[in-house]
Every structure is written in C-alpha cells, then in structure tokens.
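Entry for the shared binder. Reason: the reviewer on the internal report wants the predicted structure included alongside the sequence.
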Amino acid sequence: MTTQKLSDSALLSQTKSLVREETRLTTEILYHLREIEARKLFCALGYSSLFEYAVKELGYSESAAQLRIDSMRLLRELPQVEAQVQSGELTLSVLVQAQKFFRQEAKLGRPVSVTQKQEVVQSLEGKSTREAERTLLAMSPEPEKHRPETVRPVSADFSEVRLNLSNETLENLEKLKGLLAHQFPEMTLSDLVTYLAKRALKELDPAQQEVRAKASVGTSEVKTIPAAVKREVWRRDGSRCTYVDPVTGRRCESRHRLQIDHRIPKGLGGGNDLANLRLLCSQHNAFEAARVYGRETIQTFWRL
C-alpha cells in the first residue's frame, strides 16, 4: 500500500507509530553497539575502534556514528534516563550535547559526578538541540571553551581547521614565528603548524629516528627490545597497526596508540627477534592478549 492512498488520519497515525518504532529500534541498536564494544568484536573484523566499525561496516555517516556511540556511552553510565529516550522526551542529539559538555568539563578540570549528570540530563527533557546547548553553556563558567573543533575539507590537499586556542598559546606561537623569522621570513600560522608537526614527528616517530648505535636485529637473548630493533619494526610496519582480519583480509592500519606486540608472547617463550615482533594499536594488542590468555584474564585492561 502506498502512502498516497492513505487517508489523512491514517497517514498521521501511521507516521507517529513509525516514529515510535524508530525510537525503539534506535535504542536496541545502542544496546547492540554497547555489547559489540564490550566484546571488542570490531577488532576481530580489523577495525581499531567502534567508530570505524560503525562507519565502514554499518554504513553510518561519521556524524551519525558518533551520535549513536556517544549516546550509548552516556546511557551505559545513566541507565535511569532510558525511559525518557524511548518516549522521545530525550533525543539522541540532546544526549550527545550533554556527553560533549561532560567530557569538556572534565578536560577543564571540573569533572561532573554521575548524580550531577543525571540531574543535568533530566533538565534537558523536552528541549531541542539548540535549547539544550544554551542550557548547558549557561552551566559552565567558561562557555567559550565548549566551542567544538571542526575540520572541513576545502580541496583535495587542504582542510580548514577551526579550534580554540588560549591567548598564551597564541603568544607562544608568535614567539616561535619570531625565532624562525630569519629562516622563514614570510611564515604564516599554517606554515608554522606544518613545520612543528614535521619536526615533532622526526623526534617522536620511531620510524624516522636515526640509528645511533648498531644492534643485532635478529637477537632474542636480551630481555628488553633493543632500540635498533624497535626502529626496524616501526619502519617495516609503516608506523601502522598490522592486524589483519583472517576472513576478509582487512588490515587495521590505525596510527593511534601503537604498541610493539610479540606474536608469540614472552610469557609463552617468544623472543625479541624481528620476526616475532609487530606493531598493533592498543585495541588489537588487548584483543590478541584476550585471544591468547582469555577474555576474563585481560578484561580489566580493556578500555571500555
């Protein structure tokens, strides 16, 4: 039956019914996402995060994926507000606004207790996203620091970044521009950020560090991994996670929180030879540990 054949009253009634069903299904999806995150099932598929899984595997847009993940995590912390979400008194967008507000307040040194969070969320019932944003900003002594950072592509090679910097940070950047003025007299703020990023990577990225001393890359006699071996692992693996889904062949390739992992764990006799070492992101490192030692053993080390 097409909607064009529905009477006015039937069309309105069915639309309202569908919206209620949509809300119910959305809540069910949040429960499923919560359990997927708890079991780290996205790791098995070669994804480094629940967000990446939601975008690439489930087909959500980045904003829709983050909306659901933030809502899920807040509901996990405040299960008392689930009824308001199911009834439509609290929308996912409003929950996300609240979650971002709590996260930023904690970052600014003002963590919000669970009791306070519940009170804040209840005060947002029935409010639109914009009304909720105004309410939340009025609660912060530093509302200007709640403006979100944004990245917007402007061409194939460049993106526009909007972020908040303190006056102290801006002053420090100007000092750096002054110190570099002899070498780069026309340096812009964009040029400075590019310069600092390259310089920091040269100092911090093991794959870019110079070899200062020779070491046997094939040795497994020492207890700690020699610095030269570590550098070779980073170079060989391209400074990316090397986990591969055995079914689909998908490689994770995350650059976030990389760790050197032993293919055969040291506790099971594995050595520090290059062939036994690989780069894994923290999620896949924990996932592999759980596979070897059991989920119950490693559960406390997982960041849920």
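Summary line for the report: Strands lie at 150-153, 159-162, 258-262, 277-281.
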